[in-house]
Amino acid sequence: MDFDVIVAGGGPTGLLLANELGLAGVRVVVLERQPVRTGQSKALNLQPRTAEVLDLRGWLDPIMDRAVTTLPAGHFSGTPLDYRALDTRFPYQVGIPQARVEEFLESHLAEFGVPVLRGHELTGFRQDADGVTVTVAGPAGVRDLRAAYLVGADGGRSVVRKHLGVGFPGRGGRVSMVVADVVLRNGDTDGEWRLPTFEPHEGGSIFLLPLGDGVHRILFGGPGQQGVDRDAPVTEDEVRAALRRAEDGEPELREIRWASRFTDASRQVERYRSGRVLLAGDAAHIHLPAGGQGLNLGMQDAFNLGWKLAAEVRGAAPAGLLDSYHDERHPVGAAVLRNTRAQGLLMIPDPDVLAMRALLADLLTGPEANRRIAGMISGLDIRYPMPDAPVHPLLGSRLPAIDLPTGRGLFLVPRPEFGDAARPWRDRVDHAVVDGAHAEGADAVLVRPDGHVCWVGPEVDDGLRAALTRWFGQARQVTP
Ligand SMILES: Cc1cc2nc3c(=O)[nH]c(=O)nc-3n(C[C@H](O)[C@H](O)[C@H](O)COP(=O)(O)OP(=O)(O)OC[C@H]3O[C@@H](n4cnc5c(N)ncnc54)[C@H](O)[C@@H]3O)c2cc1C
Predict the structure, then answer these.
(1) I want to staple 50 with a disulfide (CB 3.0 to 4.6 A). Which of 46, 208, 264, 391 is the partner?
(2) What is the spatial distance between Cα 480 and Cα 122, in angstroms, rounded to a whole number?
Protein backbone atom coordinates (compact mmCIF):
# COMPACT_ATOMS: atom_id res chain seq x y z
CA MET A 1 0.00 0.00 0.00
CA ASP A 2 1.22 3.52 -0.78
CA PHE A 3 -1.19 4.96 1.81
CA ASP A 4 -3.86 3.83 4.27
CA VAL A 5 -6.39 6.31 2.87
CA ILE A 6 -6.57 8.38 -0.32
CA VAL A 7 -8.86 11.41 -0.08
CA ALA A 8 -9.97 12.74 -3.47
CA GLY A 9 -10.74 16.47 -3.18
CA GLY A 10 -9.11 19.23 -1.16
CA GLY A 11 -12.25 21.22 -0.33
CA PRO A 12 -13.41 21.76 3.26
CA THR A 13 -14.70 18.18 3.58
CA GLY A 14 -11.57 16.44 2.30
CA LEU A 15 -9.21 18.72 4.22
CA LEU A 16 -11.00 18.30 7.56
CA LEU A 17 -11.14 14.53 7.05
CA ALA A 18 -7.40 14.44 6.28
CA ASN A 19 -6.73 16.39 9.49
CA GLU A 20 -8.76 13.92 11.53
CA LEU A 21 -6.96 10.98 9.95
CA GLY A 22 -3.58 12.68 10.36
CA LEU A 23 -4.33 13.30 14.06
CA ALA A 24 -5.01 9.57 14.44
CA GLY A 25 -1.67 8.69 12.82
CA VAL A 26 -3.21 7.33 9.62
CA ARG A 27 -1.07 7.54 6.44
CA VAL A 28 -3.27 9.69 4.25
CA VAL A 29 -2.84 11.72 1.04
CA VAL A 30 -5.13 14.37 -0.46
CA LEU A 31 -5.46 14.55 -4.25
CA GLU A 32 -6.63 17.96 -5.49
CA ARG A 33 -7.04 18.67 -9.16
CA GLN A 34 -6.63 22.47 -8.87
CA PRO A 35 -2.91 23.31 -9.16
CA VAL A 36 -3.33 26.33 -6.85
CA ARG A 37 -6.10 27.60 -4.58
CA THR A 38 -8.51 29.85 -6.47
CA GLY A 39 -9.20 31.96 -3.36
CA GLN A 40 -12.90 31.89 -4.28
CA SER A 41 -15.47 31.28 -1.57
CA LYS A 42 -18.95 29.94 -2.13
CA ALA A 43 -19.69 29.59 1.59
CA LEU A 44 -19.20 32.48 4.01
CA ASN A 45 -20.08 30.96 7.37
CA LEU A 46 -19.50 28.32 10.01
CA GLN A 47 -22.60 27.21 11.85
CA PRO A 48 -22.43 26.70 15.66
CA ARG A 49 -21.98 22.91 15.45
CA THR A 50 -19.08 23.27 13.02
CA ALA A 51 -17.48 25.80 15.39
CA GLU A 52 -17.93 23.26 18.19
CA VAL A 53 -16.32 20.36 16.34
CA LEU A 54 -13.34 22.49 15.35
CA ASP A 55 -13.08 23.66 18.95
CA LEU A 56 -13.10 20.06 20.24
CA ARG A 57 -9.70 19.61 18.56
CA GLY A 58 -8.35 23.09 19.38
CA TRP A 59 -8.57 24.20 15.73
CA LEU A 60 -11.19 26.93 16.10
CA ASP A 61 -8.98 29.69 17.57
CA PRO A 62 -6.63 29.89 14.55
CA ILE A 63 -9.69 29.88 12.28
CA MET A 64 -11.29 32.70 14.30
CA ASP A 65 -8.12 34.71 13.69
CA ARG A 66 -9.04 34.61 10.00
CA ALA A 67 -12.77 35.34 10.52
CA VAL A 68 -14.42 38.64 9.62
CA THR A 69 -17.20 38.71 12.17
CA THR A 70 -19.73 36.75 14.21
CA LEU A 71 -23.49 37.03 13.74
CA PRO A 72 -25.82 35.97 16.60
CA ALA A 73 -28.36 34.79 14.05
CA GLY A 74 -29.08 32.41 11.24
CA HIS A 75 -31.89 32.44 8.72
CA PHE A 76 -34.52 30.24 7.14
CA SER A 77 -35.16 31.36 3.57
CA GLY A 78 -34.23 34.90 4.62
CA THR A 79 -36.36 34.91 7.81
CA PRO A 80 -34.01 35.60 10.78
CA LEU A 81 -33.40 32.99 13.50
CA ASP A 82 -32.12 34.09 16.89
CA TYR A 83 -29.13 31.92 17.87
CA ARG A 84 -28.66 33.55 21.30
CA ALA A 85 -31.04 31.04 22.90
CA LEU A 86 -28.94 28.05 21.79
CA ASP A 87 -27.09 26.02 24.43
CA THR A 88 -23.57 26.27 23.07
CA ARG A 89 -20.27 28.04 23.61
CA PHE A 90 -20.80 29.51 20.13
CA PRO A 91 -24.35 30.97 19.82
CA TYR A 92 -23.51 32.61 16.52
CA GLN A 93 -22.45 32.04 12.93
CA VAL A 94 -18.79 32.70 12.27
CA GLY A 95 -18.56 34.96 9.22
CA ILE A 96 -15.55 33.66 7.30
CA PRO A 97 -14.96 33.01 3.60
CA GLN A 98 -14.70 29.30 2.73
CA ALA A 99 -11.24 29.88 1.19
CA ARG A 100 -9.83 30.96 4.57
CA VAL A 101 -11.16 27.83 6.30
CA GLU A 102 -9.59 25.69 3.57
CA GLU A 103 -6.33 27.63 3.81
CA PHE A 104 -6.07 26.89 7.54
CA LEU A 105 -7.02 23.22 7.18
CA GLU A 106 -4.52 22.70 4.36
CA SER A 107 -1.65 24.41 6.18
CA HIS A 108 -2.45 22.48 9.37
CA LEU A 109 -1.93 19.16 7.57
CA ALA A 110 1.80 19.88 7.57
CA GLU A 111 1.74 19.26 11.34
CA PHE A 112 0.83 15.62 10.65
CA GLY A 113 3.06 15.30 7.57
CA VAL A 114 0.01 14.74 5.34
CA PRO A 115 0.76 15.59 1.69
CA VAL A 116 -1.72 17.49 -0.48
CA LEU A 117 -0.91 16.66 -4.11
CA ARG A 118 -2.15 19.69 -6.07
CA GLY A 119 -2.66 19.46 -9.80
CA HIS A 120 -3.49 15.75 -9.30
CA GLU A 121 -6.84 14.56 -10.60
CA LEU A 122 -8.40 11.21 -9.79
CA THR A 123 -9.56 9.80 -13.14
CA GLY A 124 -10.65 6.31 -12.09
CA PHE A 125 -10.17 3.48 -9.60
CA ARG A 126 -10.81 -0.18 -9.01
CA GLN A 127 -11.36 -1.86 -5.69
CA ASP A 128 -10.71 -5.44 -4.61
CA ALA A 129 -10.88 -7.33 -1.33
CA ASP A 130 -7.68 -5.75 0.07
CA GLY A 131 -7.66 -2.20 -1.20
CA VAL A 132 -8.31 0.40 -3.88
CA THR A 133 -6.05 1.25 -6.82
CA VAL A 134 -6.57 4.86 -7.86
CA THR A 135 -5.53 6.30 -11.23
CA VAL A 136 -4.18 9.83 -10.93
CA ALA A 137 -3.34 12.31 -13.69
CA GLY A 138 -0.71 14.76 -12.47
CA PRO A 139 2.00 17.06 -13.77
CA ALA A 140 4.36 14.10 -14.25
CA GLY A 141 1.76 12.03 -16.13
CA VAL A 142 -0.64 9.27 -15.18
CA ARG A 143 0.15 6.84 -12.36
CA ASP A 144 -1.55 4.44 -9.97
CA LEU A 145 -1.66 4.83 -6.19
CA ARG A 146 -2.85 2.09 -3.88
CA ALA A 147 -4.51 2.44 -0.48
CA ALA A 148 -6.73 0.45 1.87
CA TYR A 149 -9.58 3.00 1.48
CA LEU A 150 -10.64 5.80 -0.86
CA VAL A 151 -12.85 8.71 0.17
CA GLY A 152 -14.56 10.76 -2.54
CA ALA A 153 -14.75 14.31 -1.19
CA ASP A 154 -14.59 15.62 -4.73
CA GLY A 155 -17.65 17.85 -4.76
CA GLY A 156 -21.08 17.89 -6.38
CA ARG A 157 -19.90 16.50 -9.72
CA SER A 158 -17.89 13.78 -7.97
CA VAL A 159 -15.93 11.50 -10.29
CA VAL A 160 -15.72 8.93 -7.48
CA ARG A 161 -19.52 8.82 -7.16
CA LYS A 162 -20.03 8.53 -10.91
CA HIS A 163 -17.39 5.82 -11.20
CA LEU A 164 -19.05 3.83 -8.40
CA GLY A 165 -22.32 4.00 -10.29
CA VAL A 166 -24.19 4.31 -7.01
CA GLY A 167 -27.71 5.76 -7.17
CA PHE A 168 -28.04 9.53 -6.72
CA PRO A 169 -31.80 9.96 -6.46
CA GLY A 170 -33.59 13.27 -6.15
CA ARG A 171 -34.45 15.86 -8.73
CA GLY A 172 -32.56 18.11 -11.13
CA GLY A 173 -32.51 21.89 -10.96
CA ARG A 174 -35.74 23.79 -11.61
CA VAL A 175 -34.34 27.24 -10.96
CA SER A 176 -30.95 28.59 -12.07
CA MET A 177 -29.17 31.38 -10.21
CA VAL A 178 -25.90 33.29 -10.29
CA VAL A 179 -23.42 33.93 -7.47
CA ALA A 180 -20.82 36.67 -7.89
CA ASP A 181 -18.45 38.81 -5.87
CA VAL A 182 -18.51 42.31 -7.31
CA VAL A 183 -16.98 45.69 -6.51
CA LEU A 184 -19.55 48.50 -6.42
CA ARG A 185 -18.72 52.20 -6.61
CA ASN A 186 -21.70 53.53 -4.68
CA GLY A 187 -22.46 50.42 -2.66
CA ASP A 188 -22.53 50.13 1.09
CA THR A 189 -18.81 50.12 1.96
CA ASP A 190 -18.88 49.84 5.74
CA GLY A 191 -18.18 46.15 5.31
CA GLU A 192 -20.52 45.14 8.10
CA TRP A 193 -21.68 41.59 7.39
CA ARG A 194 -25.33 40.99 8.01
CA LEU A 195 -27.98 38.45 7.15
CA PRO A 196 -28.98 38.54 3.50
CA THR A 197 -32.17 40.51 2.95
CA PHE A 198 -34.53 38.82 0.56
CA GLU A 199 -37.92 39.48 -0.99
CA PRO A 200 -39.15 37.37 -3.91
CA HIS A 201 -39.87 39.50 -7.02
CA GLU A 202 -41.62 38.54 -10.26
CA GLY A 203 -38.84 39.99 -12.41
CA GLY A 204 -36.17 38.10 -10.45
CA SER A 205 -34.78 38.20 -6.91
CA ILE A 206 -31.42 39.40 -5.62
CA PHE A 207 -29.52 39.00 -2.35
CA LEU A 208 -26.86 41.63 -1.71
CA LEU A 209 -24.36 41.26 1.12
CA PRO A 210 -21.48 43.69 1.81
CA LEU A 211 -18.17 41.89 2.44
CA GLY A 212 -16.03 44.97 3.11
CA ASP A 213 -13.76 47.19 1.00
CA GLY A 214 -16.58 47.85 -1.46
CA VAL A 215 -16.82 44.13 -2.34
CA HIS A 216 -20.33 42.64 -2.32
CA ARG A 217 -21.62 39.09 -2.62
CA ILE A 218 -24.64 38.98 -4.89
CA LEU A 219 -26.93 36.05 -5.54
CA PHE A 220 -29.60 36.53 -8.16
CA GLY A 221 -32.00 34.65 -10.37
CA GLY A 222 -34.75 35.65 -12.75
CA PRO A 223 -36.11 34.86 -16.20
CA GLY A 224 -32.72 35.77 -17.80
CA GLN A 225 -30.92 32.99 -15.92
CA GLN A 226 -33.30 30.13 -16.74
CA GLY A 227 -32.40 27.56 -19.39
CA VAL A 228 -28.78 28.78 -19.51
CA ASP A 229 -26.04 26.11 -19.49
CA ARG A 230 -24.52 25.79 -15.98
CA ASP A 231 -21.02 26.27 -17.34
CA ALA A 232 -21.88 29.29 -19.52
CA PRO A 233 -19.90 32.38 -18.42
CA VAL A 234 -21.86 34.96 -16.42
CA THR A 235 -22.09 38.16 -18.46
CA GLU A 236 -21.60 41.71 -17.25
CA ASP A 237 -25.00 42.59 -18.76
CA GLU A 238 -26.89 40.12 -16.60
CA VAL A 239 -25.06 41.30 -13.46
CA ARG A 240 -25.95 44.92 -14.31
CA ALA A 241 -29.58 43.97 -14.98
CA ALA A 242 -29.77 42.19 -11.59
CA LEU A 243 -28.23 45.17 -9.77
CA ARG A 244 -30.97 47.40 -11.19
CA ARG A 245 -33.40 45.32 -9.12
CA ALA A 246 -31.42 45.81 -5.87
CA GLU A 247 -33.33 47.55 -3.10
CA ASP A 248 -30.61 50.09 -2.45
CA GLY A 249 -31.12 51.68 -5.86
CA GLU A 250 -28.93 50.53 -8.70
CA PRO A 251 -25.40 50.43 -7.28
CA GLU A 252 -22.76 51.01 -9.96
CA LEU A 253 -20.69 48.00 -11.01
CA ARG A 254 -16.90 48.48 -11.13
CA GLU A 255 -15.58 44.94 -11.30
CA ILE A 256 -16.72 41.31 -11.25
CA ARG A 257 -14.18 39.39 -9.15
CA TRP A 258 -15.66 35.98 -9.95
CA ALA A 259 -19.07 34.59 -10.87
CA SER A 260 -20.68 31.22 -11.46
CA ARG A 261 -24.05 29.57 -11.85
CA PHE A 262 -25.85 27.16 -9.55
CA THR A 263 -29.26 25.52 -9.34
CA ASP A 264 -31.68 24.15 -6.77
CA ALA A 265 -30.97 20.53 -7.77
CA SER A 266 -31.55 18.29 -4.77
CA ARG A 267 -30.01 14.81 -4.68
CA GLN A 268 -28.49 12.43 -2.17
CA VAL A 269 -26.44 9.34 -2.80
CA GLU A 270 -28.12 6.06 -1.83
CA ARG A 271 -25.13 4.63 0.02
CA TYR A 272 -22.31 6.58 1.66
CA ARG A 273 -20.17 3.42 1.70
CA SER A 274 -19.53 0.98 -1.13
CA GLY A 275 -16.97 -1.52 0.18
CA ARG A 276 -13.67 0.33 0.54
CA VAL A 277 -14.94 3.55 -1.03
CA LEU A 278 -16.78 6.22 0.93
CA LEU A 279 -18.43 9.48 -0.12
CA ALA A 280 -18.61 12.69 1.92
CA GLY A 281 -19.69 16.32 1.52
CA ASP A 282 -21.11 17.57 -1.76
CA ALA A 283 -20.05 14.28 -3.38
CA ALA A 284 -22.81 12.66 -1.29
CA HIS A 285 -25.47 15.39 -1.39
CA ILE A 286 -26.35 18.52 -3.36
CA HIS A 287 -29.06 21.07 -2.58
CA LEU A 288 -29.97 24.73 -2.80
CA PRO A 289 -27.49 26.75 -0.71
CA ALA A 290 -30.23 28.15 1.54
CA GLY A 291 -29.61 28.89 5.21
CA GLY A 292 -25.83 28.41 4.87
CA GLN A 293 -25.59 24.65 5.46
CA GLY A 294 -23.69 22.79 2.69
CA LEU A 295 -20.11 23.35 3.80
CA ASN A 296 -21.17 22.71 7.39
CA LEU A 297 -22.90 19.45 6.47
CA GLY A 298 -19.80 18.27 4.59
CA MET A 299 -17.39 19.14 7.40
CA GLN A 300 -19.61 17.31 9.86
CA ASP A 301 -19.68 14.26 7.55
CA ALA A 302 -15.88 14.33 7.69
CA PHE A 303 -15.91 14.59 11.48
CA ASN A 304 -18.23 11.60 11.79
CA LEU A 305 -16.17 9.52 9.36
CA GLY A 306 -12.61 10.36 10.46
CA TRP A 307 -12.36 8.50 13.77
CA LYS A 308 -14.28 5.50 12.44
CA LEU A 309 -12.06 5.14 9.39
CA ALA A 310 -8.95 5.58 11.54
CA ALA A 311 -10.09 2.74 13.83
CA GLU A 312 -10.81 0.57 10.79
CA VAL A 313 -7.35 1.21 9.33
CA ARG A 314 -5.69 0.39 12.67
CA GLY A 315 -7.62 -2.89 12.77
CA ALA A 316 -9.25 -1.77 16.04
CA ALA A 317 -12.75 -1.06 14.72
CA PRO A 318 -15.61 -3.12 16.11
CA ALA A 319 -17.94 -4.77 13.59
CA GLY A 320 -20.32 -2.29 12.02
CA LEU A 321 -18.44 0.85 13.09
CA LEU A 322 -17.65 2.00 9.55
CA ASP A 323 -21.19 1.22 8.37
CA SER A 324 -22.54 3.48 11.11
CA TYR A 325 -21.16 6.41 9.05
CA HIS A 326 -23.91 5.87 6.48
CA ASP A 327 -26.52 5.01 9.09
CA GLU A 328 -25.89 8.23 11.00
CA ARG A 329 -25.09 10.73 8.27
CA HIS A 330 -27.62 9.74 5.56
CA PRO A 331 -30.62 10.84 7.69
CA VAL A 332 -28.86 14.11 8.59
CA GLY A 333 -28.23 14.85 4.89
CA ALA A 334 -31.82 13.91 4.04
CA ALA A 335 -33.09 16.39 6.65
CA VAL A 336 -30.99 19.19 5.12
CA LEU A 337 -32.34 18.33 1.66
CA ARG A 338 -35.87 18.56 3.06
CA ASN A 339 -35.35 21.93 4.71
CA THR A 340 -33.58 23.45 1.69
CA ARG A 341 -36.44 22.31 -0.57
CA ALA A 342 -38.88 23.97 1.78
CA GLN A 343 -36.77 27.13 1.79
CA GLY A 344 -36.64 27.09 -2.02
CA LEU A 345 -40.42 26.93 -2.18
CA LEU A 346 -40.64 30.01 0.03
CA MET A 347 -38.56 31.95 -2.51
CA ILE A 348 -41.14 31.64 -5.29
CA PRO A 349 -42.45 35.10 -6.25
CA ASP A 350 -46.15 34.35 -5.83
CA PRO A 351 -48.63 36.25 -3.62
CA ASP A 352 -49.71 33.04 -1.89
CA VAL A 353 -46.10 32.18 -1.08
CA LEU A 354 -45.56 35.71 0.24
CA ALA A 355 -48.53 35.11 2.55
CA MET A 356 -46.89 31.89 3.74
CA ARG A 357 -43.57 33.70 4.31
CA ALA A 358 -45.31 36.33 6.44
CA LEU A 359 -47.03 33.65 8.50
CA LEU A 360 -43.78 31.77 9.02
CA ALA A 361 -41.88 34.94 9.98
CA ASP A 362 -44.53 35.57 12.61
CA LEU A 363 -44.31 31.99 13.93
CA LEU A 364 -40.53 32.20 14.19
CA THR A 365 -40.74 35.12 16.60
CA GLY A 366 -42.04 32.59 19.17
CA PRO A 367 -39.17 31.13 21.27
CA GLU A 368 -40.09 27.45 20.79
CA ALA A 369 -40.44 27.66 16.99
CA ASN A 370 -37.24 29.71 16.81
CA ARG A 371 -35.36 27.15 18.92
CA ARG A 372 -36.58 24.23 16.82
CA ILE A 373 -35.62 25.70 13.46
CA ALA A 374 -32.43 27.34 14.77
CA GLY A 375 -31.44 23.99 16.33
CA MET A 376 -31.87 22.37 12.91
CA ILE A 377 -30.03 24.95 10.78
CA SER A 378 -27.20 25.37 13.31
CA GLY A 379 -26.55 21.61 13.35
CA LEU A 380 -26.82 21.49 17.15
CA ASP A 381 -29.94 19.32 17.29
CA ILE A 382 -28.41 16.31 15.57
CA ARG A 383 -29.06 13.18 17.59
CA TYR A 384 -27.74 9.83 16.43
CA PRO A 385 -29.66 6.67 17.31
CA MET A 386 -27.78 4.65 19.95
CA PRO A 387 -29.23 1.15 19.75
CA ASP A 388 -29.33 -0.93 22.92
CA ALA A 389 -28.27 1.93 25.25
CA PRO A 390 -30.55 2.98 28.12
CA VAL A 391 -32.82 5.88 27.22
CA HIS A 392 -31.56 9.23 28.46
CA PRO A 393 -32.09 12.83 27.25
CA LEU A 394 -28.35 13.17 26.45
CA LEU A 395 -28.01 9.89 24.58
CA GLY A 396 -26.98 10.39 20.93
CA SER A 397 -26.68 14.17 21.32
CA ARG A 398 -23.46 16.09 21.31
CA LEU A 399 -22.14 17.06 24.72
CA PRO A 400 -21.57 20.83 24.72
CA ALA A 401 -18.47 22.45 26.22
CA ILE A 402 -15.93 19.64 26.25
CA ASP A 403 -12.46 19.32 24.70
CA LEU A 404 -11.26 16.23 22.84
CA PRO A 405 -7.89 17.33 21.47
CA THR A 406 -6.51 13.81 21.09
CA GLY A 407 -9.41 12.52 19.01
CA ARG A 408 -9.96 9.71 21.52
CA GLY A 409 -13.11 8.80 23.44
CA LEU A 410 -13.81 10.28 26.87
CA PHE A 411 -15.37 8.72 29.96
CA LEU A 412 -16.63 11.48 32.27
CA VAL A 413 -17.28 10.24 35.78
CA PRO A 414 -18.62 11.83 38.95
CA ARG A 415 -16.38 9.69 41.23
CA PRO A 416 -12.88 8.25 40.58
CA GLU A 417 -13.95 4.59 41.04
CA PHE A 418 -16.03 4.81 37.89
CA GLY A 419 -12.91 5.31 35.81
CA ASP A 420 -11.64 1.82 36.48
CA ALA A 421 -14.52 0.42 34.47
CA ALA A 422 -13.00 1.80 31.25
CA ARG A 423 -9.40 0.75 32.06
CA PRO A 424 -9.38 -2.11 29.55
CA TRP A 425 -10.07 0.54 26.86
CA ARG A 426 -7.64 3.17 28.18
CA ASP A 427 -5.52 3.04 25.01
CA ARG A 428 -8.61 4.41 23.19
CA VAL A 429 -10.67 6.16 25.87
CA ASP A 430 -9.46 8.86 28.30
CA HIS A 431 -11.21 9.39 31.57
CA ALA A 432 -11.85 12.50 33.63
CA VAL A 433 -13.50 13.08 36.99
CA VAL A 434 -15.89 16.02 36.85
CA ASP A 435 -18.03 17.68 39.45
CA GLY A 436 -21.31 16.84 37.80
CA ALA A 437 -21.30 19.71 35.34
CA HIS A 438 -21.02 17.29 32.45
CA ALA A 439 -21.99 14.11 34.15
CA GLU A 440 -25.63 15.00 34.78
CA GLY A 441 -25.46 14.77 38.55
CA ALA A 442 -24.45 11.29 39.61
CA ASP A 443 -24.43 9.85 36.10
CA ALA A 444 -21.30 8.94 34.20
CA VAL A 445 -21.17 9.79 30.49
CA LEU A 446 -19.29 8.01 27.70
CA VAL A 447 -18.44 10.33 24.79
CA ARG A 448 -17.27 9.27 21.34
CA PRO A 449 -14.35 11.04 19.62
CA ASP A 450 -16.87 13.18 17.69
CA GLY A 451 -18.37 14.54 20.93
CA HIS A 452 -21.61 12.50 20.80
CA VAL A 453 -22.81 10.69 23.93
CA CYS A 454 -23.03 6.91 23.49
CA TRP A 455 -23.84 5.83 27.06
CA VAL A 456 -25.13 7.52 30.25
CA GLY A 457 -25.71 5.75 33.54
CA PRO A 458 -25.56 5.97 37.33
CA GLU A 459 -23.40 2.86 37.74
CA VAL A 460 -21.01 0.53 35.97
CA ASP A 461 -22.96 -2.25 34.38
CA ASP A 462 -22.96 -4.57 31.39
CA GLY A 463 -24.55 -1.79 29.33
CA LEU A 464 -21.44 0.37 29.79
CA ARG A 465 -19.14 -2.48 28.77
CA ALA A 466 -21.38 -3.16 25.77
CA ALA A 467 -21.21 0.50 24.72
CA LEU A 468 -17.42 0.57 25.11
CA THR A 469 -17.13 -2.54 22.96
CA ARG A 470 -19.65 -1.32 20.40
CA TRP A 471 -17.86 1.99 19.75
CA PHE A 472 -14.23 1.27 20.71
CA GLY A 473 -13.72 -2.45 20.12
CA GLN A 474 -12.66 -5.32 22.36
CA ALA A 475 -11.25 -4.75 25.84
CA ARG A 476 -7.50 -5.25 26.24
CA GLN A 477 -5.95 -7.27 29.10
CA VAL A 478 -5.03 -4.89 31.92
CA THR A 479 -2.19 -5.76 34.23
CA PRO A 480 -3.04 -4.76 37.80
C1 LIG B 1 -23.66 29.95 -4.42
C2 LIG B 1 -23.31 29.06 -3.28
C3 LIG B 1 -23.28 29.58 -2.00
C4 LIG B 1 -23.01 28.76 -0.92
N5 LIG B 1 -23.00 29.29 0.34
C6 LIG B 1 -22.83 28.48 1.40
C7 LIG B 1 -22.87 29.02 2.73
O8 LIG B 1 -23.01 30.22 2.94
N9 LIG B 1 -22.70 28.14 3.76
C10 LIG B 1 -22.49 26.82 3.57
O11 LIG B 1 -22.35 26.08 4.56
N12 LIG B 1 -22.42 26.29 2.32
C13 LIG B 1 -22.58 27.09 1.24
N14 LIG B 1 -22.50 26.57 -0.01
C15 LIG B 1 -22.17 25.14 -0.18
C16 LIG B 1 -20.67 24.87 0.01
O17 LIG B 1 -19.89 25.76 -0.75
C18 LIG B 1 -20.36 23.42 -0.37
O19 LIG B 1 -21.29 22.60 0.28
C20 LIG B 1 -18.93 23.03 0.00
O21 LIG B 1 -17.99 23.64 -0.85
C22 LIG B 1 -18.76 21.50 -0.09
O23 LIG B 1 -17.44 21.16 0.24
P24 LIG B 1 -16.77 19.83 -0.34
O25 LIG B 1 -15.39 19.82 0.20
O26 LIG B 1 -17.66 18.69 -0.07
O27 LIG B 1 -16.76 20.03 -1.91
P28 LIG B 1 -16.01 21.14 -2.77
O29 LIG B 1 -15.89 22.41 -2.02
O30 LIG B 1 -16.68 21.16 -4.09
O31 LIG B 1 -14.54 20.58 -2.93
C32 LIG B 1 -14.26 19.50 -3.78
C33 LIG B 1 -12.80 19.58 -4.20
O34 LIG B 1 -12.50 18.44 -4.97
C35 LIG B 1 -11.71 18.81 -6.10
N36 LIG B 1 -11.93 17.79 -7.12
C37 LIG B 1 -13.04 17.58 -7.87
N38 LIG B 1 -12.88 16.51 -8.66
C39 LIG B 1 -11.65 16.01 -8.40
C40 LIG B 1 -10.92 14.88 -8.89
N41 LIG B 1 -11.44 14.06 -9.81
N42 LIG B 1 -9.66 14.66 -8.42
C43 LIG B 1 -9.13 15.50 -7.47
N44 LIG B 1 -9.78 16.57 -6.98
C45 LIG B 1 -11.03 16.81 -7.42
C46 LIG B 1 -12.23 20.19 -6.46
O47 LIG B 1 -11.26 20.92 -7.19
C48 LIG B 1 -12.50 20.78 -5.08
O49 LIG B 1 -11.38 21.46 -4.56
C50 LIG B 1 -22.74 27.38 -1.13
C51 LIG B 1 -22.76 26.86 -2.41
C52 LIG B 1 -23.05 27.68 -3.50
C53 LIG B 1 -23.07 27.11 -4.88
Answers:
(1) 46
(2) 50
| pLDDT for residue 480 is more than 50 | yes
Q: Residue by residue, what is the 3-state secondary structure of 265-309?
A: CEEECCCCEECCEEECHHHCEECCCCCCCHHHHHHHHHHHHHHHH
Q: Which CATH number characterizes residue 246's domain?
A: 3.30.70.2450
- Asked whether residue 109 is domain-assigned, the answer is yes
Rounded to the nearest angstrom, the distance between the alpha carbon of 14 and the centre of ligand 1 is 10
Minimum CA distance residue for ligand 1 atom 3: 42
24 lies in the same domain as 142? yes
Domain that holds residue 440: 389-480
329 pLDDT exceeds 80?
A: yes
36 lies in the same domain as 114: yes
- Quote the ligand 1 centre to 305 CA distance (angstroms): 18
183 CB burial (10 A radius; 0-12, 13-18, 19+): middle
pLDDT at 247: 63
Q: Where does ligand 1 bind, in terms of residues with CB under 6 Å?
A: 8-14, 31-34, 42-45, 98, 121-122, 153-155, 159, 179, 262, 281-282, 289, 292-296, 298
pLDDT tier at 202, thresholds 50, 70, 90: confident
What percent of the chain has a predicted confidence (pLDDT) above 90?
Answer: 76
